[in-house]
Request: fold
Amino acid sequence: MLLTGLGLGVALGFTMQRGRFCVTGAFRDLWITGSTRWLTAFLIVIAVQSVGVFALDAAGVITLDPQPFAWLATILGAFIFGFAIVLAGGCATGTYYRAGEGLVGSWFALIFYALFAAISKTGALSAPVAALRGITVEGSTIHGVLGISPWVLVALLVTGVGLLARYHLRRRSPLTLASLPARTSGIRHLLFEKKWGAFTTALIIAPLAILAWPLSWATGRESGLGVTGPSSNIVNYLVRGDPQAIDWGVYLVIGILLGSFIAARGSGEFRVRLPDATTTIRSIIGGALMGVGASLAGGCTIGNGMVDTATFGLQGWVSLVFMIIGTGAATRLFITGSARVGVSPVRIPVPR
Amino acid sequence: MAQYVLETDGQVCPFPLVEAGDAILKLDLGDELTINFDCTQATDALPRWAAENGYPVTHFDRVGDAHWTITVQKA
Reply:
């Protein structure tokens, strides 16, 4: 049954690589260009997933069990995580799938992310992290606090996101984008060459995110997609040899890596790419801060931002807001601001 | 009508896009800017940036595994 995690992970990694689904990019675009196209794609996943999750809950397939909201740790952790993903060049899943494309900078980010997640969850930093997460308020979900049916929120979210998607689709039509010349045809072209739209990609990821719930549940891991916990579990398994640490989530994240590698390899987009010194240091610091931030916040862009939001958890939505703010701060510092160093390109005039 | 080359290999997104945006400001109308890049996401971001700014794309192709080149004209 654990193998369903691997299968789902492969499908997810494949889709994210082909669709260029990057949550860091979605948050960053808000601050660089003001574009909400990728954020809309991300919200589509949340909205569609919320329908599925509450349907599964109503059908008794899963039982949502909201925890008290650790507000302080969530705010702090989400800000740190949002800041860190700009340095690392990708969020948790983004880092996994870029690692599968052969980006050595992402390998560094991934190793330090998993290491610091383990340090924060079960290692030297676990006491302060647990203490901060012990500071909670009574409420745990938005519909619980408001005392309304979650379906009211599902309807509002689906309508809102639908309108946003329609705005983007209407606006898109006059733009013709240059595309790469086709080299293949048929199913191979569709899978490995054709450009996948942002919203199409979101509509493939959403059912995978819904499916993750019952599949994971069946193995005793009672949650949906998640990346930080499984990454920490891998470290615990490796250093302590504890086979109990290998759960559905571990298979899932290994699957993401594998799926992205298959997609990149099949489309001629795999190459071992070495980063420069600045990028290497940023990847390491970013990865480490991601591990600490996600452990504090109780989840990453996926666990909190895409999954807990779909259950209308306060942790998910507060986390989403503070991750975006953290991304904005790092973007101002390292991308559009003065700390943009060492990447100035050489411009060569070519005589005609 | 000059041609310029911007090498962004090894830079991760969004740097190829940010650098291209900076570089094209320094060019004269009609000049062409070739951007060589190896960040996968830029295969989506750069053509979109060109289209949204009204810069015609005169060339866009793969150079090798995970290597691309795009040429836009300042207009």
Notes: The first strand of chain B starts at residue 3 and ends at 7. The longest helix of chain B spans residues 42-53. The mean pLDDT of chain B is 90. Chain B has one domain: 3-73.
